[in-house]
Design a protein that fits this description.
Layout lengths: L8 H24 L5 H17 L3 H23 L5 H42 L4 H4 L2 H7 L8 H10 L11
Length: 173
Amino acid sequence: MFDSCAASPTLILFSLLFFSIMLVGAIYDLFTYTIPNFLPLFLIGTFAAFALWQALPWPLLAAHAGAGLGMLVAGWVLFALGLLGGGDAKLFAATSLWMGWHGLLNYLIMFSLCGGILALSLLLFRRLPLLERLARHGWIATLHDKAQGVPYGIALAAGAMLAWPDLLTVPGQ
């Protein structure tokens, strides 16, 4: 973490906001297979507020913005290929803004591992017969539907939580 704000109330507050937004995104995706646009916008807004509050240097801001924009382009490509939903791509980019280039590799690894585990779990779940008492819950029936994709917002949130030590880190500080 930044030495100037390590374990500070500001860092704790903004980290809690970050994780709360990610958790809401995961829950939305689990129940509806959508991630509302306001969630990535909240992530961007809280990052901007944090950057202003901490007076982050311009080179660091540019690096974080570059990571966010770079992953937005990557997300668009994955969306165009049908590998990721539009909400997932936007949430991925907004999360990458927070991670910056330094924390991005760890986040990508954690997100990919969580996404793989989630996809395999859904494949196994979908091979089993769905109990009638579970089928009455629309979101469970949707998860069980083989025609549905994977709600990767869950993996994005889990990956962010696992990559937390790299959130807002700067090499050499």
